Amino acid sequence: MAKTITEINEKISKGNAVVVTAEEIIDLVDEGGIEETAQMEVHF
Asked: What are the tens digits of pLDDT across the range 1-44?
């Protein structure tokens, strides 16, 4: 599901945006697959 700019900006303003590097996303996809990675919720 593609996110709109408004949805992305809302996540940023609420402090809920998650940023990963290209190397990190490759590892996440290798571990869980593309569908699971796309739906992943990250908790810190």
From this structure: 678 999 989 999 999 888 889 999 999 999 999 999 888 876 65
Contacts of 20 (CB under 8 A, 6+ apart): 28
Token pair of 17, please? 């945006």
Are the CB atoms for 29 and 37 separated by under 8 Å?
yes
What pTM, to 2 d.p., does this model score? 0.55
Give the Cα separation of 24 and 30 in Å (integer): 10
Query: How far apart, in whole angstroms, are the C-alpha atoms of residue 22 and residue 15?
Result: 21
- Going from N- to C-terminal start, the domains of the chain cover 17-44
Structure tokens at 42: 């990250």
